[in-house]
Design brief:
Layout: H1 8-15, H2 32-35, H3 53-68, H4 72-82, H5 89-98, H6 101-108, H7 114-122, E1 126-128, E2 131-133, E3 145-148, H8 152-157, H9 161-167, E4 175-178, E5 183-186, H10 201-208
Antiparallel strand pairs: 1-2, 1-3, 3-5, 4-5
Helix pairs in contact: 3-10, 4-5, 5-10, 6-7
């Protein structure tokens, strides 16, 4: 699977705000958006103003892709999945992205970043409703139970994780976390308000509608 090889800090600087791509570092003074809160490159201090509507739509698409760590082909696939679902297409797209298995693992606190969550899922450290899963884009539904597998590899990685899970207070309202048993459950559908970063997914709809 192809990966975006750009520096995660540069992706945040290009977006103009924190996308929380590097876990705890994003909350520290070492965060690039604290030290250099401008776009990368020689013209970073003097960004162009305005821009075309198409350019703004493209920038928003790129921002959402980078936020969830999704490449273009997969992102377009998610858009095609939701474009005919009743409701606001932009909101449906964000709901689908939030319900990716890697994102749910991240939101529950099992991983410090979506990139780390993607890696953990690829190593089959989680099961969904009792079935071990290694597909990061797997769609999670209301009622699904996500469980950390108790194999040797998982125990080594999470040996210091249990206490931090018990202390976690910011689990989204659409998820429930049982830190004692290291399980999480989807209790409702996420909305655009749960993204945590300012995005306008309708601009993505307009971009793909051209």
């Amino acid at each position: 699977m192809p990966n975006n090889i750009d520096s995660k800090c540069k992706l945040c600087r290009r977006a103009g705000e924190k996308l929380f791509l590097k876990g705890d570092r994003c909350m520290s003074p070492k965060c690039a958006m604290v030290r250099r809160p401008y776009a990368p490159g020689v013209h970073g201090h003097n960004p162009s103003r305005g821009g075309s509507e198409f350019g703004r739509q493209l920038a928003m698409k790129q921002k959402i892709k980078r936020l969830y760590g999704v490449m273009e082909r997969q992102f377009r696939h998610h858009f095609d999945e939701v474009r005919n679902i009743p409701g606001i297409t932009g909101d449906q797209l964000l709901s689908r992205l939030e319900r990716r298995l890697d994102n749910v693992v991240y939101r529950l606190g099992f991983a410090a970043s979506r990139a780390q969550a993607k890696q953990l899922v690829s190593h089959k450290m989680f099961s969904v409703n009792g079935v071990r899963m290694n597909i990061s884009s797997y769609e999670i539904h209301v009622g699904d139970l996500i469980t950390l597998k108790t194999n040797k590899k998982a125990k080594v990685f999470f040996k210091n994780q249990e206490e931090s899970l018990k202390a976690k207070k910011d689990v989204p309202h659409w998820l429930s976390l049982d830190a004692e048993n290291q399980t999480g459950k989807v209790v409702s559908m996420p909305t655009h308000e749960d993204v945590g970063v300012r995005v306008d997914a309708q601009m993505v709809v307009e971009y793909y509608s051209k």
